[in-house]
Amino acid sequence: MRLTRQDVTKILQKHDLLVSEPTDDLVFDHLHYDTRQVQDQTLFVVKGAFKAKYLDGVAGVTALVADHDLGIDLPQWLVTDSQKALSVLAMAYFDYPQDHLWIGAFTGTKGKTTAAYFAYTMLKEATKGKTALFSTVDRIVGPKPADKKKSDLTTPESFELFKDMRRAVDNGMTHLVMEVSSQAYLRNRVYGLRFNVGAFLNISPDHIGPNEHPTFADYLAHKEMLLDHSDHVILNAEMDHYQEIFTRAASRHDRVLTYGRTKMTPVNDQQPLVTFTSQESALHESHFTVAAGPMVPDLQVISGGYRLNLPGDFNEENAVAALMMVGLAGTDHGSMVKGLDEVTIPGRMLSLKLPGHGVAFVDYAHNYVSLLSLLAFAKAQSPDGQVIVVLGAPGNKGVSRRADFAKVLSQKADQVFLTADDPQYENPLTIAKTIADGIKNDHVRVHFEMDRITAIHRAIDLSGENDLVVVAGKGEDPYQKVGGVDTPYIGDYAAVKECQRALLSGQKLLVED
């Protein structure tokens, strides 16, 4: 929609962001924050370390919104926070699409994508396809192939967020499931947005470093912000720091919806309102039952037994949170059963049988908790075989993960191939050696192979009939981030699939020691 000078001023005043305003009679046909996307009559929002010279030669900008004076001869709104201003202006520019969507959001250190796909699949079944998804893997805004694209961020920049919401609404979507990262609140990408349901899955140290959160306390505080901006909140009663998180939620909500395993030891002497029991967890599926207690009559619909089309009892935790979320959205029980029975998640817990070489698992596990859960599951499935791991760690972010990975590998791996993940501006071998230095178990055999595809081939080549090969970190990502460039990559799953095809045809994997 078009924005007038009066519109912009009113919006900024409403959110207590306005410092000063221009007096010119202005009308804007476009809004953006990227100089490459400027068109005629664009209101340009300056954010981050933007410099005036970046606008040299850019035609079409007729006014600015910024948190400092750029010294440019253009009308300008000065604001206290340009990131917040971008969010509230974007939602207005796209005519408040969130008002036409039921929105459920997940946060947590691990499991956000998995839980989001669970909820999306169930709601998609219940709404006859009228559900959108914003996840780390995909953004889906409609039923056509053109309505699906790969994500570049877990939670997109606010302009892209509301733009995609508008596309979803225009495509007839009525529901949206999305992931909300701590960075989304740190960078004010979801400023001013409220959710129908917010679910907090778990918390452990992650995303702590120079370019992310300075401390764990800061990381947790930004995660907790989802609780402040949701009408209903769901908490995992078995997560670390539960009492602190519950107290925060209870201070803002009359009812906090909790879930946990049957007969768990409660942290605050209160049993979870929803409990679940794991019945069976096999290599390719799991079975569990859910019971909603009498204090949650609006969630009785989720009670019953389920087959989950993914292995691992840790995935059952995520499934229960998703069931509670879609239950609050009015989903019928049949859609819940069918959704979980059929759900597939790109890059998550993908398994392939390897003739003569056991089974390979491909998973996006990229932090301490997710890797620990994955390797613990693998070890339980193969008590007589080895767990052989292929992984690396990203460069220039999440530096604490390297020590965390070393700790898990020391406990749960038999052999590990350390390789490149998304090294960015760091040397992947340096990252790998940092992980190796932290491995304190002499029985873990460490290999270095910086070519990721070769590392996968080598790991599979040395595996035996009873072994499990776990390829963690990239899933089906189509690129690796190297030196600031998205370098094309076939993806971990495709690399394992190559090995499977070679083994099925009797070929050797052509690897060198």
Task: Describe it.
The structure is a single chain. 50% of the residues are buried. The strands form five sheets. Strands 11-10-9-12-8-13-14-15-16-17-18 form an eleven-stranded mixed sheet, with helices on both faces. It has 513 residues and is α/β, with parallel strands linked by helices. Helix 2 (82-93) packs parallel to helix 4 (158-170), helix 3 crosses helix 8 and helix 13 crosses helix 14. Helices cover 32% and strands 23% of the residues. It has helices at 5-14, 82-93, 112-126, 158-170, 182-186, 216-228, 242-250, 313-328, 333-342, 368-381, 400-412, 428-438, 452-462, 492-504; strands at 3-4, 18-20, 27-28, 30-32, 42-45, 61-66, 76-79, 102-107, 131-134, 138-140, 148-150, 175-179, 195-200, 230-236, 257-261, 274-281, 286-292, 304-308, 350-353, 359-363, 387-391, 415-418, 445-448, 468-472, 479-482, 485-488.
Q: Quick recap of the structure?
A:
The protein has 513 residues and is of the alpha/beta class.
Largest sheet: 11 strands, mixed
* Topology, number of strands: 26
DSSP strand content: 15-25%
Oligomer class = single chain
Chain-averaged pLDDT: 91
Low-confidence spans: pLDDT under 50, at least 5 residues? none
End-to-end Cα distance: 61 Å
Shape: globular
Give the helix level as a range of percent.
25-40%
Gyration radius (Cα, Å) is 24 Å
Report the structural category. Answer: alpha/beta
Features:
513 residues, alpha/beta, eleven-stranded mixed beta sheet, six-stranded mixed beta sheet, 14 helices, globular
